[in-house]
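Quick board copy: two proteins, each given as sequence then tokens.
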Amino acid sequence: MYKFTILYRCNQILIGSVFLLLFMPSLLSAQTFDIYEIPKLNGPITLDGNVDEPAWKAIEPLPLVTHWPSFGESVDLDQTQIRIAHDEDYLYVSCRCYGDPENISAPTYKRNQANMAMDGLAIILDTFNDNENGLMFNVTPSGSRMDGAISNDALDGNLNIFWDTIWEAEAVITDYGWTAEMRIPFSSLRFESEEGRVEMGLIAYRYSAHNVTLEIFPEVPPNWGLWSFVKPSQTQNIVLNNVESHTPVFITPYLLGGIQRQATLPEGDDGYRHDRELTYEAGLDLKIGITDNTTLDLTLNTDFAQVEADDQQVNLTRFSLFFPERRQFFLERAAVFDFTFGGSDRLFHSRRIGLHEGQPVRILGGARTISRTGGWDIGLLSMQTAHDQGLLSENHSVVRVRRQLFNPQSYAGGMLTSRIDENGNYNLSYGLDGIFNLWGDDFLNINLAQTTDSDPGASVISFQSMRLQADWERRSFDGFNYNFNYNYSGELYEPAMGFQLRRNYMRFGERISWGWTLGDDSSLQRIQASMNGSLYLSNEDRSLETSEFGPSVEITWKRGDFANAEFTYITEDIPQAFQLANDVEIPAGRYTFPETSLSYHTPRGESLRAIFRAGGGGFFDGTRFTASVTPTWDPARIVNLNLFYQFNRIEFSERNQDLTAHVARFRTEFTFSTSLTFSSFVQFNSANDIGVINSRFRYNPKDGNNFYLVYNETLNADRDRLTPRLPASESRAVMLKFDYTF
């Protein structure tokens, strides 16, 4: 009874506080925008990429301007023609891209591989006109497609390419350039409709890799840095008439079978043995369109066997590593569930569901619904995990509400998360947050959260279990910019459904900077110089935990390469020793040392390109040197090669200790067509002496229908590091998976 009283009181606090916040008097006036009406097609379109139907000729091309390398110049129709139209069921986009066919860059057929080495036609749709979230659809001259979800107004390039939906595109290379067509079902989009009238935000652009040129509609200036051209806040308001509500039902059953082998050490034995197990599973996903702006997703016996392995990393800190979400079920409109405190800290992190120490935990099933109505964003998620790997069965649930207020870029809302195991033990997190566009490019972000649990002494509201952030930033590139941040985390703050690096601290930061956009006569495009700093204090006695201060500079060239240099002066107070690897540890004490880092990215439009990084300096009571290289090569349209190699060398001469760590990742992809791919991802990490192989064959004849053959293996690189001797292969699995969408 006690826990239900707690839940009831938490809901009262959350709902009451949000109600007060959402309906307080507005201090800022609303903004208004001109409307661009998208015409309706007057004839049929055959989706073949040729753009030769009379119906297309009747549509006026969008008025494009240049975005890169210079801004604001009108684009002639004999250079690029982008058209957009609709009928009752689909949104159509076409492009005639004129130019020398020898300069066309289309190195792959692979889906979700669009990058700045590939020509492309793209649109961004802000389907709810919230000026913060968007959906991107991109097609290249080879016909390869990329779709992604944009969040947080594309700050720092917030584009999640692991989001996929159902749509079609075709492209043709001609003797005068290339042409392309897209067809996006309205059933794949979520929007608000009033008597057949739909308003959205739109950005459309053509990108040419050989000269790093981008032509765009509407006139979006590059004032916010590299990702200015995908910002939902800069979309053109459009209207589509006579578009009726689509409430489809998609049913996707799957079948999974395979064999797994795991090394085990029986009690009392002096050697490992391999246990084999046949695996066979079946499950079901349902997507139900309740209204045109509300969906319900149901999943039964959820499986993610086809998801690629996490990148191997070397942890040279005393904090946990953060890994991003890659599982498709959790990615659709995931931005609705964002409640972040800066960096990787957040109140809800979906990887807390169905994963434990990087290993999958069986998910029995769950449900999610996301809705946008009357200015409200509402998200509900509930998942049930099984009794697995010695872990108790748990329910993970999230409630999220947000509302637009003041102006199109201001929001306030709240979140409640619960994690309850089969014995009734629970952890609750609840909080309020707001993003307020004060004026111009100035934004104030406020987050306030509390946690409590089933401990009889836990409080519903306590300063010790509170998390608070206040962040004031100017979101622009040119001229004077700043970001001032305050963070507080109480000693008892413990979000079991979230992620946090540090505990029981206060933080002050962040940066001031000045940016320049260079003129047409310069080979440089942008320069930004910054002074960065952060100060972490212990809540117990206000003593220093960490301070980091120093300048940085970032330079971008018009040919597409960029460089960054940073110097940081660091002070660290280590209350207790922590281990790095191979019996190398950092003793308790206070340390002061400098650190320098450099990076350079070669021109992004080349088929062979690379990222170089190097850094070094002090490292507590020793020295460190780190270097990495990430070359990417597209030797042919069906082959893509990517290598990552990182070298770390740490020396503590006075203690006669040292550490050398290597991380290597090699990804090979063969894309035989837009529906047939093979990829192999091989990794090695010397810090924990393991190698990982993840190979995947995929046949995808159309969206929603997939056949996967997956091979995974974990290898021990140093078999003699433990006694008894480790097996060469720690685990191995071969899986077949088939899913079909009705």
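And the next:
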Amino acid sequence: MKKIFMNYKSFFYNLSFVIVLITFVNFLNGCTSSEVVDVNEERIKDSVNVYTHLDRAFDLYQKALNYNNKFQDADAKNAFEKSLKTLSEINSKVLNEPGNSAWKEDYNELAKSITQDFLITQQNIPDNNIVFKFAEKLGIEFERLNEYTQSEQSGYEPLPDGKDLPLIKNSVVEEYIDFFSKTDRGKSFIDKTMYRSGKFFPLMRKILRHYGAPEELIYLSIQESGLNPTIVSRAGAVGLWQFMPATGYAYGLYQDEWRDDRRDFEKATDAGARHLIDLFKTYDDWYLAFAAYNAGPGRVNSAIRKSGSKDFWVLRNYLPGETKNYVPSILALSFIFRNPEMYGFTDLELAKPISFDRANIKSSITFQQIADLSGSDLETIRELNPELTNDVTPNYNSIYQIRIPHGTFKTFSENYKNASFEKNGLSSPEFAGSEQFDFGQVAATKFKVRGYMPNDIRKIGMITDNNVKYTVKDNDKLSVIAIDNGVRATDVRLWNNLTYGRLLLKGMMLNIYLSENEKNIKEYNLDGSLENKETKDVTENTNSGNTNTSENNSNNETSSDEGTSFFDKITKGKNSKTTETQTKKTETSEKKNTKKETTTKQTNKETKKETKKETKKEDVSDDSGSDNTVKTVSTNTETMKKETVKKPAGKEQVYTVQEGDILSTIASSYSVKISEIQEWNGLESDVIYVGQKLKIYSDKKTESGSTKNSKTKEEKAPKTYTVKEGDNLQKIADKFNLKVSQLKLWNDIEDGDHIIIGQVLKLTEPEKKTTKKQTTTKKEKVRKKKGKN
């Protein structure tokens, strides 16, 4: 019994222990469950708070960009500030808690974009503004750019010194410094261009700052044109930045019977800045961008492939003779202009900065009339309006903006009102702002953000014509999609109205809008075209770098000495044999002992070549310009062979560019490469225009180039056009790929080129019912003309 009792006692003891244990565990579980509920509720509240603030800030950010796009800077600045203040209300401790990394990522994404765009679009931001706190917090590096006024008493703004674009000096650059500083021709060029720099540099630098481009680009303009806005090259390149017609048109520089925008010092500098920024985005190297500006991307891409390098100083010998010396010459000019006294220029005179008022008028009046109305003289009006080629304002029947001497608008306006000439509905001119540079005081402070260079600060977040559709896949992240397309995640949100509380779902279609440059980069991967010299045979066409088209030769071939390529002048001014010997000695001294040199003499050209041999590798340079040979370098046999140049494979075809065409689609339809089309046609860039004839070597025929398709397009083309404000016959003819003479003939326009708004023009030749009537009509026209005479 005792044993049984003890067993019962033990049982009840154990049972009691289990009950107590279960009760205790339940108690603990009850407490934990309650705490979990509390934690979850708190997290939900934090999440709602964070994303409510993110979406509110995002909405204000959208408004700021819309105001910026409409040039409403005060409203944009206010909206930017409010968006950042909204973000500052989010508790940073919550963002930094474990498990909230996604929230912090979204916060940083939005805060970074707002801060970048606030800085780059606004000027004169006070030092105590919240944007600077965010920039410091997010590690955004920026630079203040002061725009100065200018006066005779205070001197001139210091020239850019290589902070944004490296300005290096080596033996090649020294040669050009010697030319510019020690030869009569070089010194004369410096005297002229230094004087003109005083006139144009302040305005040019202001435009470059606007785009966030390095101000060192002004030295390229010296090389291009000698700072002469009306200079014309033998190839037809025009103006301060030497634009050819097609490239100029692609960047908004238009030409007609009244004007040539390539001669406009403001518009041309604006276009030059955008063009060079596009080239820099392609190569990520300013020296290569310079080379492409001079010779075209096709030749630079070819030099990269042949040399296996993206270092300008390595690949320069694979560039055409003019281009390989183009960059050293620009660098030489930068050293002389920054420190003229060091190089013997002690008595230089600088012109006064160009200053003017802008006036909108709606009448065709002569420069002499403008001079009389403003109390100026004919030469001054010509100097201020170099784009107008006939000393008269265009007869566009629409507003045109002219420049008159600074401070004369009031006089001009009063005299204009009292003048008797036709004013086309605008009885008095409109003031459109002014430019005045009185250097010495800070006129405005802008900001440049490192690593962020939008094409147009007024179009940030706006849609473009280059739309790419992207379908969301499993596990896609918005940040990765953005990086793959060369845009920001916030841009994708703006284009697709994706709030921060909205998740990406599989199958969702996203609109992505690329800039022209981003589109070209996406279509043509430069790195993918490089060949590995150690594993492949490299075939080099010795003439590929020397056959220049007029388009590629546009830069630095000018109609007068002051615009001629100065590295060409150096060559002309020296004994060619002496130069060749000196160059060879320099190259020999720099080569390693492991390399062997062999010199071969070419009978026809009487030029010397150097062949360097290395174990398992050869570098071959051929500047002979031979038309019929190519060199094949084999890394296995280390032998050099000469073969006859073969024509491009495929049948030669001619393709006429249609509206909406781009090089990538044309290349794809013919199964060829973009670079091949550029090389066959001597294209400087990817820019093409409607009606342009392209030479294509391919056995493949496409519908876009067939006669059948052409007929279909002709049938669908409009037969009439209603004249709108700002139209003229040349503009309409260009738009529909016609000639002005055709428009005049089909619409019986005999009295000049006059057309009126609302007039309906025929775009096709009128149908002729009978041959007899046609003949009669022609005779009647002849009689009318005779009667007039």
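Board note added afterward: The first strand starts at residue 142 and ends at 148.
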